[in-house]
Structure formats: structure tokens, C-alpha cells
Write a structure and sequence with these properties.
The chain is of the alpha/beta class. It is built from 9 helices and 10 strands. Helix 3 crosses helix 4. It starts with 7 loop residues before the first helix and ends with a helix.
């Protein structure tokens, strides 16, 4: 096709329109800040981290044992932003998935993560008790309530576009929030040695079902190596939101290798399922700095030649693509 002189102004205008669109969609840096959510009638105070789109260039910032890539306390850029909330695993941290939070914030999401009271690295006082399984979904509902009402970014968040990311027990948390009813007695979850109190509590029939918190405001879920207490289709019959599931090949920390794949057969809506070859459970945590690899190799050092850094580059982008597609 040839271009005539009369077509040139139209072609130039089209090029400028494309350039304007591309410039308007350039990724931001990730701003991050600490947040304290007050105690209320539904639970104790929550410690949180929030990541938001930021117009300033990113820099490496030491924060606890990690190096965060972004800008501390940077003003939030944008309006009607989607929100993603993060639930960590057994005795985990709101920093455990900071790399994913940074990628999402770079792309225009607000991201909020908490330390679950009684089941975090700084307070593991109830990590083996039934209470944390009851309270975890409520913790996340309270986090969403805060982000939509009292947070500094409340006016910038679109309440119709909320997503959830959960790892390990955080995956369990997400399935409850999505409408699932756990069946602890029949779940394929072997008790460890030493035996935590929850094992005896389950055997005595003390685990609740109908009192657990669901939250229909969450429109899409990503679950990484979820702790599966939903053995039958009936346990998940009320789950209708789109779900992406990631499974390690070898499992770990109480998650058996076939736990996540089993969910594919019982969820009423077929999930977007990914099996990560040669990986173990903690491969879904953010890559560790050198000091952490030395101090906590059990969660930082991967076996079987697994490259966590390379995996997370693809993992973070695939999670971002899922949320973009399902939080339009």
C-alpha cells in the first residue's frame, strides 16, 4: 500500500496518538509505607504494608531483612485504582511477597499486606491453634474495610476492583473469603511432630464452619501452594470468582504436593492452574538477600537446581496479567 500526500497528516496524527497512549501507560515506581490499623470489635490491631503507584524513580531501600525496590512514603498517583490484598503463610510476614507487590504497584495497583496476629514471624503465639484459622479471613476483611474507608488512599481505590493473593495458609484464607467452607476433619493435612493444639481440636470437633468470614467484594483470587482443607466439591460450591492456582512440585510446611492440584477437581469453576516443576513450597516467597540465605536457609535456599529469581520474574508478570484480565 502506498501513502499519498493527502494521507500524511492522518498518518502523523495516528503515530502521535499511539505515542501519547504509550507514554500514558509507562509503569510507575512502587511507593511503600507502613500502616497501623486500629483494633476494633472484630479483632486486634493489624500491622500492614501498603504499596502504591508512584511518579518518582525507584531506588533500593533496606527494610528489615529485605531490600525493597521503590520509594518510601511516595504520594500515590492515579484514581479508581484496583486493590490487591495479600495474606502470608504460616508465621510469615507482610514482606514475604514484596516483589509481587512492587510489580503490581508499578503497574497501577494499590497493594496491602498484613501480619496476621498470632501467626506471623513477630508473633507466632497462636500459630498452632484453631483461632488463627477462624480469624485469618476476618483479618483480611478488616484490611479491606480500612483501605476503602480510613486509609490515606481510600479515595483513590475503586471498590469494584479488589483482588486477593494468598500463600499457603493465605491460600486457605482466600478460599474461605471466596465462599468456601473448610472441612478440617476430612482434609488431607497430616499433623506434624510435635503435634500442635489444632490437631486435637479438629479431632474433638471444635472447628467452626458457618461462622467463618466471606467477602464478596473480592473479585479475583491468586493462590500459591494453598493449604487445602476443602476435600469435597460441596465445600466449595459457593465459590464463583475466577481463581489462579500455583502449585509447587514437592510441597512443604504442611502442604502436601497434591493439595493444590486436588482443588482443580472440586472447584465449580475451572481455575487457571500452574504446576511449577522442581520447586518446593517456599519457592513462592520473594528471593532472599544473601544474609537471609545464610540465616534462614530453610526458606531461602532452593534445591533441585531451582532458580527462584528467574521464576519470580515470570511468576510476578503472570499474576499481574491475571489481575489485569479479571479486575477490569
Amino acid at each position: 500500500m502506498t501513502t499519498t500526500r493527502n494521507q500524511l497528516p492522518w498518518a502523523a496524527a495516528s503515530i502521535f496518538a499511539v505515542l501519547f497512549f504509550l507514554l500514558g501507560t509507562v509503569a510507575h515506581a512502587a511507593g511503600f509505607k507502613r500502616v497501623n490499623i486500629p483494633a476494633d470489635a472484630n479483632g486486634p490491631a493489624l500491622k500492614a504494608m501498603v504499596w502504591t503507584p508512584c511518579a518518582e524513580p525507584a531506588e533500593d531501600v533496606p527494610f528489615g531483612p529485605y531490600i525493597l525496590h521503590g520509594r518510601r512514603d511516595c504520594p500515590t498517583v492515579g484514581d479508581k485504582l484496583p486493590l490487591v490484598v495479600i495474606s502470608h503463610g504460616h508465621t510469615g510476614s507482610f514482606l514475604g511477597h514484596h516483589d509481587l507487590a512492587e510489580v503490581l504497584a508499578d503497574a497501577g495497583f494499590v497493594v496491602a499486606a498484613i501480619n496476621h496476629p498470632g501467626d506471623s514471624y513477630e508473633d507466632a503465639s497462636r500459630a498452632g491453634d484453631k483461632s488463627v484459622f477462624i480469624e485469618r479471613p476476618t483479618d483480611i476483611k478488616r484490611l479491606i474495610d480500612y483501605m476503602l474507608s480510613a486509609s490515606a488512599d481510600a479515595a483513590k481505590i475503586d471498590p469494584q476492583r479488589i483482588g486477593f493473593f494468598g500463600f499457603s495458609r493465605g491460600g486457605y484464607t482466600g478460599l474461605v473469603l471466596a465462599g468456601g467452607t473448610p472441612d478440617f476433619r476430612h482434609a488431607d493435612a497430616p499433623c506434624p511432630d510435635p503435634r500442635p493444639p489444632i490437631c486435637d481440636q479438629v479431632e474433638r470437633g471444635e472447628m467452626p464452619t458457618t461462622t467463618l468470614t466471606h467477602d464478596p467484594r473480592i473479585k479475583a483470587f491468586v493462590l500459591a501452594d494453598p493449604f487445602n482443607t476443602f476435600p469435597a466439591a460441596a465445600d466449595l460450591k459457593n465459590v464463583s470468582a475466577p481463581i489462579q492456582i500455583w502449585a509447587s512440585e514437592f510441597g512443604g510446611d504442611g502442604v502436601v504436593p497434591h493439595a493444590a492440584p486436588a482443588l482443580v477437581t472440586v472447584l465449580p469453576r475451572k481455575p487457571d492452574f500452574h504446576l511449577v516443576r522442581n520447586s518446593a513450597h517456599f519457592a513462592f516467597l520473594a528471593p532472599c538477600p544473601a544474609a537471609m540465605k545464610k540465616n534462614v536457609p530453610e526458606i531461602c535456599v532452593d534445591e533441585h537446581g531451582f532458580d527462584r529469581v528467574a521464576f519470580h520474574k515470570q511468576f510476578d508478570e503472570d499474576v499481574l496479567a491475571f489481575f489485569r484480565a479479571n479486575l477490569r
